[in-house]
């Protein structure tokens, strides 16, 4: 970077493969709402269903461009050689489209916000000779992102990255063997945290609302929680609330959950509240908060939000959430994918006010819960250092 450029705002282009309401997309929106000494732009594929969380949230604050082919979730993309070839063509088309943009050609550094975007950002970076940063928000394993994506990340993207941001130690360990850069940081995603004062906590009794804040998606564990709730709370009293809408083609799963609630005899105590823009208010309305994903979460933004709100919290004992929650101190940890273990944890909290109070206080006192501004400053540092490589 020249001396003249060093005195100007860092020109950063962020790329995402989706504009839907997902965790990575909300994290990028929150990042771009912080105050950093950069000149950012966002590049996305065409909007498919009218949903564009970036335009909705950022308005004209940040330039947004839509180019290249649209990308779909892995479950919709098919499998086998034909699907792999189709994916390869889309990646090439996306990379070339990205490289043609003036914003990309003039950028000091590119930042891939998701795994899918990382592949074509790496291609655009090679075509324009622009350094790029990869934001690792997934566990880089075939089970989590698919075999083709794993091979592309390991062989093509990661060895060429100028910088890497992992959202947890768990996600970093899945990519570390493939990195050549020394610009590597573990930084939690911006999660809109507003930590409460532990001394000001009020823990209601009895428990009336148990909930999960996550998009409606089979791997997020809504079915597991629904079955555990029916076991733990068979009688009227507590209700179960799912905050989050079906994204990435999972509308049928929402219908399946509603049908399951009927078959379990708890439909009158289960609420599908849909997407809520005010996540703080949604979490504030809950007495017990749950994270129960069926595969390891790289981070679990909802867990950070639960803790910051001082909520009695239950998490699955793997991945990023287990780095933040210590069983019996600031939450309860259950055996992953075990409905009976989850039901037992729910029952323990419902029946024990003293335990709820102790865990709520521990949650609010969890160390290293960063504000979005603090997270943004650390991400800016990585982008700046990567631009100089």
Q: Order of strands across the widest beta sheet? A: 3-2-1-4-5-6-7
CATH superfamily of the largest domain: Glycogen Phosphorylase B
Look at the structure and give the mean pLDDT.
Answer: 93
Total beta strand runs: 13
What fraction of the residues are assigned to beta strands by DSSP? 5-15%
Please explain how this structure is put together.
The chain has 389 residues and is α/β, with parallel strands linked by helices. It folds into 2 domains: 208 residues, Rossmann fold; 167 residues, Glycogen Phosphorylase B (Rossmann fold, 3-Layer(aba) Sandwich), CATH 3.40.50.2000. The protein has 17 helices and 13 strands. The strands form 2 sheets. Strands 3-2-1-4-5-6-7 form a 7-stranded parallel sheet, sandwiched between helices. Strands 10-9-8-11-12-13 form a 6-stranded parallel sheet, with helices on both faces. Helix 4 crosses helix 6, helix 6 packs parallel to helix 8 and helix 10 packs across helix 15. The relative contact order is 0.13.
Task: Give the structure's gist in a few sentences.
The protein is an alpha/beta fold and 389 residues long. The chain has helices at 3-6, 23-32, 53-58, 80-100, 102-105, 115-128, 142-145, 147-157, 169-173, 222-232, 251-263, 279-284, 301-308, 321-324, 339-351, 353-364, 372-387; strands at 10-15, 38-44, 64-66, 109-112, 132-136, 163-166, 184-186, 209-213, 239-243, 270-274, 288-290, 313-316, 332-334. It has a seven-stranded parallel sheet, sandwiched between helices.
């Amino acid at each position: 970077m020249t001396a003249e450029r060093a005195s100007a705002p860092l020109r950063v282009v962020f790329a995402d493969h989706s504009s839907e309401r997902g965790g990575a997309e909300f994290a990028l929106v929150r990042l771009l709402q912080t105050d950093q000494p950069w000149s950012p732009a966002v590049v996305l594929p065409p909007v498919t269903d009218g949903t564009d969380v970036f335009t909705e949230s950022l308005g004209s604050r940040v330039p947004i461009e839509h180019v290249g082919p649209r990308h779909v979730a892995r479950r919709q993309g098919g499998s086998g050689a034909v699907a792999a070839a189709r994916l390869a063509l889309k990646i090439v088309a996306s990379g070339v489209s990205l490289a043609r943009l003036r914003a990309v050609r003039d950028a000091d550094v590119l930042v891939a916000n998701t795994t899918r975007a990382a592949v074509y950002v790496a291609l655009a970076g090679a075509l324009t000779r622009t350094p790029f940063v990869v934001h690792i928000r997934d566990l880089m394993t075939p089970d989590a992102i698919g075999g083709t994506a794993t091979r592309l990340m390991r062989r093509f993207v990661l060895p060429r990255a100028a910088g890497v941001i992992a959202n947890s130690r768990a996600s970093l360990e899945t990519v570390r063997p493939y990195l050549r850069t020394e610009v590597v940081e573990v930084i939690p995603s911006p999660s809109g945290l507003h930590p409460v004062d532990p001394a000001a906590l009020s823990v209601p009794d009895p428990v009336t609302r148990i909930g999960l804040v996550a998009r409606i998606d089979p791997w997020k564990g809504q079915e597991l929680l629904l079955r555990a709730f029916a076991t733990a709370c068979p009688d009227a009293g507590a209700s179960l609330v799912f905050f989050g809408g079906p994204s990435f083609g999972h509308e049928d799963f929402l219908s399946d959950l509603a049908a399951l609630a009927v078959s379990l005899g708890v439909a009158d105590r289960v609420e599908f509240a849909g997407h809520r823009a005010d996540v703080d208010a949604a979490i504030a309305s809950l007495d017990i908060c749950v994270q129960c994903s069926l595969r390891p979460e790289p981070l679990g933004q909802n867990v950070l939000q639960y803790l910051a709100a001082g909520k009695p919290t239950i998490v699955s004992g793997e991945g990023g959430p287990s780095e933040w929650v210590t069983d019996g101190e600031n939450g309860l940890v259950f055996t992953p994918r075990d409905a009976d273990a989850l039901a037992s944890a729910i029952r323990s909290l419902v029946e024990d006010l003293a335990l709820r109070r102790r865990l709520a206080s521990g949650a609010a006192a969890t160390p290293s819960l960063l504000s979005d501004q603090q997270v943004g400053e650390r991400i800016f540092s990585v982008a700046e250092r990567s631009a100089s490589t």
